[in-house]
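To close the chapter, one final illustration. This time we ask the reader to focus less on the individual chains and more on the assembly as a whole: which components sit near each other, and how the overall shape emerges from the parts.
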Amino acid sequence: GAGVSQSPSNKVTEKGKDVELRCDPISGHTALYWYRQRLGQGLEFLIYFQGNSAPDKSGLPSDRFSAERTGESVSTLTIQRTQQEDSAVYLCASSPRVTAQNTEAFFGQGTRLTVV
Amino acid sequence: DAKTTQPNSMESNEEEPVHLPCNHSTISGTDYIHWYRQLPSQGPEYVIHGLTSNVNNRMASLAIAEDRKSSTLILHRATLRDAAVYYCILSGFITQGGSEKLVFGKGTKLTVNP
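The assembled structure is written out below.
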């Protein structure tokens, strides 16, 4: 595939509903990141997957947020019981992460989540 | 996580060089210095990274201080398309079950005037 693909590009949901956001990384990339970016703000780290290592979940803001990754391919970010403060653009990135010298991350276009 | 400090905003004129500073006084020996930029309404894109020596690529140059406590991203001739938020990030490599994650700060918003 060409680049990191995220779906849906836009999602409007009602407060209290669960949502799933999908990320298809570049084939062969072992590292995968999720970020949240609220309007006019910087990127907020959420979670990081690297190969078969345990994911770094230190950025997840609450237990309503979870993420899974199937091997070194697709990842889903799930937000349960959505709140209005969850409204943001959710960005996914992947990286070859072959060596310490190469951590160039490629970002998708993001999923814009609006909770009404 | 190692921290970086950048000015909130900078302005430049088109076709002039731009020097974007970044301070990282707590950098460790294994931290790489990465720069990304985010154009309006887009995801971030990689610009350049380095460890100790200055680096050049088609987009920019990275000048790293001898003590590595600061660095400067240099755009040699700014264009309107270079208007973006520029992020300076430190990323280390932890061999024992740690993670090498990219943690973004607030960045510098660069305005390029025609």
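The two ends of chain A are 34 Å apart (CA to CA). The first strand of chain A starts at residue 5 and ends at 7. With these observations in hand, you are ready for the problems at the end of the chapter.
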